[in-house]
Amino acid sequence: MTTAPKEAEVALAAVPVSRLMRMRPSARHWIIGGVIVVALLIPFVAKSFVLFQLTEVMIYGLAILGLNLLTGFNGQFSLGHSAFYGIGAYTAAIMIHNYELSYLWTLPAAGGLCFVIGFLFGLPALRLQNLYLALATFALATAMPQILKFHSLEGWTGGVQGLDVDQPDPPSFLPIDGDQWLYYFTLIVIVLMFAAAAALIRSRSGRAIKAIRDNPIAAAAMGINLSLYKTLTFGVSALYTGVAGALGALAVAFVAPDSFTIFLSISFLVGLVIGGVGSIPGCLFGGLFVLYVPNIANSLSTGLAGAIYGVILLVVIFIMPSGAAGLARAVIARARQF
């Protein structure tokens, strides 16, 4: 005589096997969880300067992610993301320095403003492709420092002198200092925005964004609105970079026009290639490269810092032609063979 199965077993049997497999945490989820746990423990063992550097790495990684959404996933080239980074930074600085608003309001304000500007800039950019679009964004990045120095805007931007930004104080109920709180605050923002980007890429809209990158003619034939998705992607990309700029202003506690030149855009592009085009986790490795490698080159030789940086860049590209993400995938695939 057989016994009737329990209600839980009946419900479990009704769930498709494929869905159960998706519900189980994969190795990727365990790795992400482990990285987050390590990141949470770092402030208790690292010095203040190291915490500042790691905060900068996360901020650069977020800015590179914004560029990655546009270039890596949608196929639009940009050399102007330093402009969006600067707009986000100055939005935070003006709100805090001129209007004494809370730093918590600066991130949505910077992101929203950069989204609107990026979306509007993406409208005329629809007529441009590849190198011509890169040239248009290059012009935007070149013009931005001069716009910030414009004498009619000095009352807001501070002109060539820039603006001081008060760093956020930690909540009174937390036994941590300002550097630790800024690190944790940045970490929270990074985790949320990286998770949102991953969800976007896995969604139906994300598949449409990648289809435009792979074959725009076929994507249009499938009914995808190329103009809408391109401009929206440009806006979302600018939003991510603008939030990174606001966090950068809080971390450095100062903004000046010459901090947002075309060289910053080139650094973001280098970080994108080194981290891996089309890879979300690789953006953080790109942030590591952007922050630490120039400092390493400068410490080896001040006069030859540029040459040393170039040699390191060539060696890294030779070793990792697909970026850090491609190298990680190759190592994992090799390990599974054994």
Mean pLDDT: 89
User: Strand fraction band?
Assistant: under 5%
Query: Which value, in Å, is the CA radius of gyration?
Result: 22 Å
Number of strands: 2
Q: End-to-end span in angstroms? A: 47 Å
**Gross morphology:** globular
Could you list the spans in which at least 5 consecutive residues all have pLDDT below 50?
A: 1-5, 10-15
Largest β-sheet summary: 2 strands, antiparallel
Strands ordered across the widest β-sheet: 1-2
Describe the model:
This protein is an all-alpha fold and 338 residues long. The chain has a two-stranded antiparallel sheet. The chain is globular, with a radius of gyration of 22 Å. The termini are far apart.
Characteristic terms for this protein:
338 residues; mainly alpha; two-stranded antiparallel ribbon; 73% helix; disordered N terminus
SSE blueprint and pairings:
Blueprint: H1 7-14, H2 17-23, H3 27-41, H4 48-71, H5 81-98, H6 106-125, H7 131-149, H8 154-157, E1 163-164, H9 178-202, H10 204-214, H11 216-221, H12 226-252, E2 254-255, H13 262-275, H14 282-300, H15 305-319, H16 323-336
